């Protein structure tokens, strides 16, 4: 094979076939057994056997046992909500299962004195392995012999510059060879390698914590303590209303008693809120996907709204990993014009296969109108030589290369030039030197590739310093400005030199007008609390190790910050996993993308403001709709309690609450949840929702209970008769609907736009439904007439007064509390 024949001749023979087989049988091969921490069964179990599902399923079964299937339609929400949860988590499982830092490919190993190709998992401990340019290192190893090997270790360390490796150095899995080659002896394989160790830590399953879901679960847990005893009491009270257990069992009246009890239980559970939260997360994720932003965990959409601290990796986030030609700084001692120096620089870079710096110089000068000159001879750039040269027809020779190498070869004292180089380098620039020697000054023959005179003429004179800088993303400065305006503190955390990173941070105005404060991670305190205090005054941290990135996130958590972390390298994976919100670039290592909740598919930093804005929309709108659902929970609980205490028939059926809830809560809530909203996240979601729901829920409960207590006497209804009880329940359902519309109007305010039309449309839909025979019959509703209409009108008027009074009392109470406790958050 041609690839094998191009390898250098070495004396080492490598492992024998028997030694390889022994290691394979002992499990010392480069195999990582991937296994996510959650099986399909675990995922299904976690989504099916929830507190919410248990309550609703039990209630649905009880209603189905009675034969009143129309009152059990509320149970369909379980199927939808559970399906969304299972599909989402199965997708996350597949992502974790595919997690692998290393790219699967074949490698050349030396065994029995012969070079052979084996797959990555065929490499064994102590193998002699060839590492060549363009290959990713598959296992940790010790270099036996190096032929100019240069590694890109940015995926492991965050350091953007390549590292030259010598004999006896160590190389680690996950790094990539960018130049040269080496023969190495494998020292760690499989799960024991550096990359696999990072992967194993990153692969631990972590569920995103959602304030919305926490709030909803808090409500559900509270309701569980209330629901179970209240349900038993409701059944007992409803049995008593039909004459006791003997009569109920003999006449079948127990069925209606169970349905009545379920009406109270179902009303207390905000089942639509759980579904709507999942759907809203999913819709937000789909909208973000249209902007090349992949949301891998739906709950992370909400986390976006709460982020107040954003940690940015420099390479791949602020910069794109490439370099750009900035300018040529002409030295005061030269008489050469800048234009001539730029032309020479263009020709020096214009090689057959220019490196990254050469490509940057060519691109920059080409944009200024420069093109190829009349070069007679050329010495291409070499990483060993550290310089290149061109000679023109007039005998003038130009050199370009590493400043310290060229200046060392020249006659004269150029300490001032070297000092200028150091200043530029400390500001985050990559600096090269161009020097010129004319025919009359030359003391050696013009250099030529492969010729005898591949040396720098000591009479050459420095002309200028070529300044190249990391290419900053065009969207970086504007995006950082947006975050500053939104009160999100941004920090750059990088493996590069802190001075270099600080200079780039200043260029993109990380801290606005203020100069960013940079710090070397090697001086960071190890104590988390002390580190948290240190970070409050630091904007840029350089020379950061992977474990330190994780510790920085933990320290910010200790300071009660909600942290987002961006990155693209394996060295970022642990910190991204630790952060409240992990954001990976599309060109990131597979491990990093797999553990991130959000992936910017096209690696554009400018998408982040839209991502955060979408999170704020979800959080602010879900607070609105949660208030709607909790109103139903409050009045259902209070009505159930009133029914138990006063032993009256339950004033409405489950199907009534399904109809009313769909028109005053479910459908409008879905629309409101998708409306534009850029309000910043304010802590205290659950408290605000409860304070909103209490007056509305209390007003509806009092209105319904007063009607259930007084109307039978006023209208001479005998609630033991099915027709009279049906009339009472229909009237109470109308009261709940009317006050539900008023609650909807409060939630949707201001009503001077489409929101007013929304409220009017659903109010009209409720009335129209009463007039449609099929709808009215299915939901056991009917339009009141005659004396019933008058009584219903009076009841609605009293209900409206109660509604206003409850809100006035609540507002006065809040004002009094604020007066005596001004620090209390609203």
From TrEMBL:
GO MF term set: ATP binding; ATP hydrolysis activity
Taxonomic superkingdom: Bacteria
Residue numbers spanned by region Disordered: 1-22
Gene3D superfamilies: Calcium-transporting ATPase, cytoplasmic domain N, Calcium-transporting ATPase, cytoplasmic transduction domain A, Calcium-transporting ATPase, transmembrane domain, HAD superfamily/HAD-like
PROSITE patterns named in the record: ATPASE_E1_E2
Domain P-type ATPase A as annotated: residue spans: 105-201
Subcellular location: Cell membrane
InterPro entries (alphabetical): ATPase_P-typ_cyto_dom_N, ATPase_P-typ_P_site, ATPase_P-typ_TM_dom_sf, ATPase_P-typ_transduc_dom_A_sf, ATPase_P-type_domA, HAD-like_sf, HAD_sf, P_typ_ATPase
Residues passing through the membrane, by range: 48-66, 72-90, 219-239, 259-283, 625-650, 656-677, 689-711, 726-745, 757-776, 788-814
Protein name: Haloacid dehalogenase
Organism: Bifidobacterium goeldii
């Amino acid at each position: 094979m041609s690839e094998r024949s191009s390898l250098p001749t070495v004396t080492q023979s490598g492992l024998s076939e028997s030694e390889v087989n022994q290691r394979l049988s002992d499990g010392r091969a480069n195999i990582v057994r991937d296994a996510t921490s959650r099986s399909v069964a675990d995922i299904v179990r976690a989504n099916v056997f929830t507190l919410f599902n248990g309550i609703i399923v039990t209630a649905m079964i009880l209603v189905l046992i009675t034969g009143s299937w129309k009152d059990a339609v509320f149970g369909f929400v379980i199927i939808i909500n559970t399906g969304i949860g299972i599909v989402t988590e199965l997708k996350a499982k597949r992502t974790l299962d595919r997690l692998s830092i290393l790219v699967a490919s074949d490698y050349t190993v030396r065994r029995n004195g012969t070079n052979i190709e084996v797959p990555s998992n065929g490499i064994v401990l102590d193998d002699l392995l060839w590492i060549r340019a363009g290959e990713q290192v598959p296992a940790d190893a010790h270099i036996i012999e190096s032929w100019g090997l240069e590694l890109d270790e940015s995926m492991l360390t965050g350091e953007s510059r390549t590292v030259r490796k010598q004999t006896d150095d160590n190389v680690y899995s996950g790094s990539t060879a960018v130049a040269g080659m080496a023969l190495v002896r494998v020292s760690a394989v499989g799960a024991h390698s550096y990359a696999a160790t990072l992967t194993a830590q990153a692969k631990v399953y972590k569920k995103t914590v959602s304030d919305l879901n926490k709030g909803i679960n808090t409500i559900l847990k509270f309701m569980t303590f209330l629901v179970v005893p209240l349900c038993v009491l409701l059944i007992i009270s409803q049995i008593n209303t039909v004459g006791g257990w003997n009569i109920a069992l003999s006449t079948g009246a127990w069925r209606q008693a169970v349905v009545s009890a379920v009406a109270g239980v179902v009303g207390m559970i905000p089942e639509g809120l759980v579904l709507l939260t999942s759907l809203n997360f999913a819709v937000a994720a789909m909208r973000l996907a249209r902007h090349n932003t992949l949301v891998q965990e739906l709950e992370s959409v909400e986390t976006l709204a709460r982020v107040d601290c954003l940690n940015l990796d420099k390479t791949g986030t602020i910069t794109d990993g490439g370099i750009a030609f900035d300018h040529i700084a002409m030295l005061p001692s030269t008489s050469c014009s800048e234009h001539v120096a730029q032309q020479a620089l263009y020709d020096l870079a214009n090689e057959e296969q220019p490196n990254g710096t050469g490509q940057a110089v060519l691109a920059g000068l080409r944009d200024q109108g420069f093109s190829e000159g009349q070069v007679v001879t050329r010495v291409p750039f070499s990483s060993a030589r550290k310089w290149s040269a061109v000679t023109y027809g007039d005998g003038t020779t130009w050199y370009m290369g590493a400043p310290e190498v060229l200046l060392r070869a020249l006659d004269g004292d150029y300490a001032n030039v070297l000092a200028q180089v150091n200043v530029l380098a400390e500001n985050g620039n990559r600096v090269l030197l161009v020097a010129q020697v004319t025919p009359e000054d030359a003391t050696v023959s013009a250099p030529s590739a492969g010729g005898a005179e591949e040396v720098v003429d000591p009479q050459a004179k420095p002309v200028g310093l070529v300044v190249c800088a990391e290419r900053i993303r065009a969207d970086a400065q504007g995006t950082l400005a947006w975050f500053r305006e939104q009160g999100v503190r941004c920090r750059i955390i990088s493996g590069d030199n802190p001075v270099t990173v600080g200079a780039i941070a200043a260029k993109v105005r990380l801290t606005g007008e203020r100069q960013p404060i940079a710090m070397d991670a090697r001086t960071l305190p190890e104590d988390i609390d002390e580190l948290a205090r240190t970070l409050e005054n630091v904007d840029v941290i350089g020379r950061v190790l992977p474990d330190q990135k994780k510790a920085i996130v933990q320290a910010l958590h200790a300071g009660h910050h909600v942290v987002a972390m961006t990155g693209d390298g394996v060295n970022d994976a642990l910190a991204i996993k630790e952060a409240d919100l992990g954001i990976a670039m599309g060109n990131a290592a597979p491990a990093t993308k797999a553990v991130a909740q959000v992936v910017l598919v096209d690696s554009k930093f400018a998408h982040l403001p839209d991502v955060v804005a979408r999170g704020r929309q979800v959080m602010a709108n879900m607070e609105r709709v949660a208030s709607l659902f909790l109103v139903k929970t409050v009045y259902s609980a209070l009505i159930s309690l009133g029914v138990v205490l006063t032993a009256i028939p339950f004033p409405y059926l489950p199907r009534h609450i399904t109809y009313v809830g769909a028109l005053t809560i479910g459908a409008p809530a879905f629309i409101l949840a998708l409306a534009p909203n850029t309000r910043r996240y304010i802590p205290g979601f659950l408290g605000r929702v409860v304070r909103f729901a209490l007056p509305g829920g209390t007003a509806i409960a009092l209105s319904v209970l007063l009607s259930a207590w007084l109307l039978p006497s006023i209208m001479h209804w005998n609630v033991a008769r099915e027709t009279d009880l049906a009339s009472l329940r229909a009237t109470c359902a109308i009261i709940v609907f009317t006050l539900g519309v008023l609650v909807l109007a409060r939630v949707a305010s201001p009503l001077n736009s489409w929101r007013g039309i929304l409220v009017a449309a659903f109010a009209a839909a409720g009335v129209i439904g009463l007039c449609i025979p099929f709808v009215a019959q299915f939901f056991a509703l009917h339009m009141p007439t005659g004396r019933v209409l008058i009584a219903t009108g009076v009841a609605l008027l009293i209900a409206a007064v109660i509604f206003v009074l409850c809100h006035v009392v609540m507002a006065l109470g809040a004002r009094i509390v604020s007066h005596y406790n001004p620090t209390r958050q609203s």
